[in-house]
Amino acid sequence: ELEAHATTTSEMAARHFKGAKIVKAFNAILEKDIEKDARPVGAPDRRALPIAGDDGAAKQVVSGLLEGLGFDVLDAGALKEGWRFERARPAYCVPLDRAGLVQALAGAGAKVAEGSWRGWRPPDMRSDAERSHSAASARRTALGSRAMMVRRIRAGPCGIRRPISHC
Question: Which of 5, 28, 64, 138 is deepest in the core (most CB within 10 A)?
């Protein structure tokens, strides 16, 4: 079924857990980006995340959770539409604002190179949110002094005292 694209893993889970209200969420963001990319409502670089599900009330609950965590929410439709933000699709784990996410979901028929969501993308292919994140990162890099690096190593980028690679 999966190889023939006749169903999705989310639909299979819904069939397995009969009566459960399944909402596909958090599939288009890497764990390490959840805290880093959260922004207040109205922020110009606020990231949007897609959801898909067959139960409207359940989708409202999940939307509230995502909005409370600092993300705009885009309803991709029924659970069967969840393939639009699966691995190797344009919306998978790429920081996009609402407009960029709409465009990526619409172009979901095109696969992207394996692992490309982890890599650098040329500026002309980035959304406004990606450009803003890149500019902020460049500013932090430009300001990086030995003292700042020592402080970062001691506390870690997430504020916890552990090696940078674990945050």
Answer: 28
